[in-house]
Structure formats: structure tokens, C-alpha cells
Amino acid sequence: MKTSLLKYVPLIVLLTSVVACNSTYTPKRKGYFKIEFPPHEYKVFEQPGYPYTFEYPVYASILKDTTFFEDKPENPYWINIDFPRFHGKIYISYKEIGKSDLNKLVNDAYNMTYKHSSRATEIVDSAMHTPNGVGGVFFSVGGNAATAKQFFVTDSAKHFLRGALYFDASPNEDSLGVVNNFLQDDMKHLINTFRWK
Q1: Is the pTM for the entire model greater than 0.90?
Q2: Average pLDDT, stretch 58-82?
């Protein structure tokens, strides 16, 4: 009886492989971790001596910028808004108009944004003007650029401030897109509450 069953084993193996080979293979899509975002809540940055004030998220912290490409920053008003939960920072640089030419500052802001055009799929700039009398431009950079969100604000007479959001990760629009969009709301809130002192 055992030998009669053994002669069917090759036939069973052959049928199993034929049926298995005819099934369609569906590759799994690449996935990313789900990110739980906190509610947008803000607190005021208003330090004595600083020529500006604004609201920033409660889940961020302000760090004084102490290095600029291995050199000291131009002035003590350069700061970083750190988002430790997202491994990202908004790098804020401030310049006084008069010591620097406004046209040069604006051109530099555009040039620094468009340096990413080799990796960008698009760059959209939007002019802004807030109720506090602050004007500037907000840049959205699409694709796998190092920074997807940048801005500058100025009063065109005395103050100029530039901000750029960077992450401690390789640029990947698919994985960073949701975080960029979440922090874009915070950047726009910062701009809308921004005031010169």
C-alpha cells in the first residue's frame, strides 16, 4: 500500500507547482511609518534685545545658532527652531538692511532656493503680506531637494530675515512629504504672527 502511494508523489508535486506558478504575484508597495502629529499649539518667542518676535510651536525649541559653516554667525540674532520629534530645524538668519543691500539679500534668498533646482521637480514662490506689515516670499520646493520649505520676510527699510527647513535625513519627498506639509502650517503661522520690534 505504501508503494502504491509513493508512485503518486511526483504527480502531486507536479500539480502543486503548476497551480502555484499560475497564481499572480503582487509586489508589496514600499511603506513608511505612520506619524502621529501633535495638535498645532503655539507660544511666543520674545527675547530681550532681539529685533523680532513671533509665535512658534510648543513641540519645538529655540536654539541660538553658534556656528555658520565653522564660523561665528554675523550677529547674535541667528537662531534655529528645533523639532526634535521630527529631526528637523528651521534655520533662521537675520541681517540688518544698511549693513547689507536689500536687493542683494533678496537675490541671495532666491539664489539659495534655486540652488536646489537640480533635484527639484518644481519651485513655487508666493508673495506674502501680513496684517502686521510684514512682507516677503514663501518658497515650496518639490522633489527630493534638501529643503522643501523656505521663506524670507522684510520691512524693506531696516530688517531682513530668512528661514529654511532642513531634516537630519536623506531628502525623500515620499517619506518627508507629510512632515513638510505639517510643518509648513507652523512656518506660515510663524510668518503671520511675525513682528519687527
Answers
A1: no
A2: 85
